[in-house]
Amino acid sequence: MRNSKHGLKALVLAMMAAVLGTTAFVASAQAQTHTEKLHALTLHAATLNPNQLSSPSTNSAGTFTIDLGSALLAELVARQVGEAELLVAARGLIMKCIELHLVPGSHINSSTDATATVEFLGCLPFSHSTLSALPGCGTKELGTIKAAFLILPILHGGQLFVLFEPVAGQSTFTITVKPNLGCVLPLNSPIGGAISARVASLEAVTQLLLFDEAIQLLIGDVLKYGALSNTAYIKGHVDVELAGPHEGLKLRVH
Question: Would you call 33 exposed, middle or buried from its count of C-beta atoms within 10 A (0-12, 13-18, 19+)?
């Protein structure tokens, strides 16, 4: 009887260990899938050679589709993965933002374009050389930077990208710091130009976009910061999905 109880206890413990082990494996596999996808995209960016840039004329127009059907008036939502950075090397500036929010009304207009208004949240300016926060340089709107974009799907060298262009007649966005706090940055720094991101897959419910300096050089569109038009780059990862009636459907760029 005593041996029977001991055997039953051992069996229960073994089953619990198996269940816990399986749960841990599944969680690890799910996390690894996303990590591996980011890693593959980062490796791709690292292999791009800015000295072998193609002319922007080699970019060709792509299309958006939803579940392989026409894309029309589909609402978009987005989540930033980790921290995003705006780098302006000539000004020794890195603007770090911890979150991204798409303003309601951001949507795919048709198979050839989309529009979005973006809020970058929790933004703080840092020194590029020392990586320390720049004193007195808090942004005017409590760490929020707003931007409006026209989004175009494009193809380049067999790869899929999306191009973020400024809405006609507007700066892409403006960094405004609080006055009279001794900040070394100008009070208002408009940022114009365009920015590109690589699309992770042909078709997915969640499309992962990679922003990287090498990718932006490859496509030939960059941002310009401030009155001196210093070149600026964005580095980060963003997950994009469809919302509203199209939630859960697959978004494709091709």
Answer: exposed
